[in-house]
Specification:
two-stranded antiparallel sheet, 10 strands, 7 helices
């Protein structure tokens, strides 16, 4: 490593006009359903863009921990998939410029990279930094996907019931960046899409579609979602077809559906701080509701008749 060498280089002649939004999507940490990667690939494939800068990955990556791919053909090496951590300038459908930083999550020098990204934010007059990725959750693909929104200021977050309270998790670079930016008074918003855990390793286009829609809600950017929506429909049809022939998987989804529906029914009940409530239910009614709820949550998947 060479701390005196710059980590980030802006390309000669690259446009440095203001871009109010920076999307950061780095591979290497949790991204269930590959939601974040699919979003960035879709954006770069459907919107005019150009590379305006890049990080020097040789200072940031542990190659032996994440070995790049090479191709050997007969008697020689013919290609090398060199890792790149690059900054794209992208234009929305209405011509609004924004930035996308994508590539592998750094293995080293996290604090220095955060500092370099902060300089990019200042140089391009970025007002909002955003990130989207998937996390595995015990939810069925047959129900609307939820998400956990987070950020450096609660006033910018959409009103929603959060799935988590106070938990301790391994750090990621994006999480550290959000934390440091918050300490510096910069605005950051993120969304973790709740991907069915049994689809976490697959490409889940429906999760990416929910993610890009939330990205639009965060930023107001006019993004093309047509191809991703079409891929999501095909993806859901394929998942349904594959699960239809698997009794164990069908039983799992059915159990998750019951759990999801029971949870949603519980959310519809008046909360302790509700001010507009109807008649107070009786003890018997409360007991019956609780019994039905517990029965749904704890019920075993339906048994299947196997041929003897």
């Amino acid at each position: 490593m060479a701390p005196d060498r710059p980590l980030f280089r802006l390309h000669d002649g690259a446009a440095t006009d203001p871009a109010s939004v920076l999307l950061v999507q780095l591979n290497g940490f949790v991204d269930a359903g590959h939601c974040g990667r699919l979003i960035v690939e879709h954006i770069l494939a459907t919107h005019r863009n150009e590379v305006v800068g890049e990080f020097e990955v040789d200072q940031l990556l542990d190659y032996r921990g994440r070995r790049p791919v090479m191709v050997f053909d007969k008697d020689r090496w013919t290609s090398y998939d060199a890792p790149e951590l690059v900054l794209h300038r992208v234009y929305s459908l209405d011509g609004t410029p924004f930035l996308v930083l994508t590539g592998p999550e750094p293995d080293f020098q996290w604090e220095r990279v955060v500092g370099e990204i902060a300089q990019v934010v200042q140089r391009f007059n970025v007002d909002l930094t955003v990130s989207v990725h998937g996390i595995p959750m015990a939810v069925p693909h047959t129900r609307p996907l939820g998400l956990t929104a987070h950020g450096t200021t609660t006033t910018m977050l959409p009103p929603a019931e959060q799935a988590f309270s106070d938990i301790q998790v391994p750090a990621s670079f994006s999480a550290l960046m959000e934390y440091r930016f918050g300490q510096a008074g910069r605005d950051v918003l993120g969304a973790a899409i709740h991907v069915p855990h049994y689809l976490a390793q697959a490409e889940y286009a429906q999760g990416a579609l929910v993610g890009i829609n939330q990205l639009t809600a965060f930023t107001g950017l006019d993004l093309d979602t047509a191809a991703l929506a079409s891929a999501a429909r095909e993806n859901l049809a394929q998942i349904g077809s594959e699960l239809a022939g698997n009794d164990e998987a069908t039983a799992l989804v059915a159990a998750l559906e019951r759990q999801y529906d029971a949870f949603q029914r519980g959310r519809e009940l008046p909360g302790l701080l509700a001010t507009d409530v109807g008649p107070v239910p009786s003890a018997d009614e409360i007991g019956a509701e609780l019994e039905a709820y517990l029965k749904d949550v704890t019920a075993d998947p339906p048994a299947t008749d196997e041929p003897g």
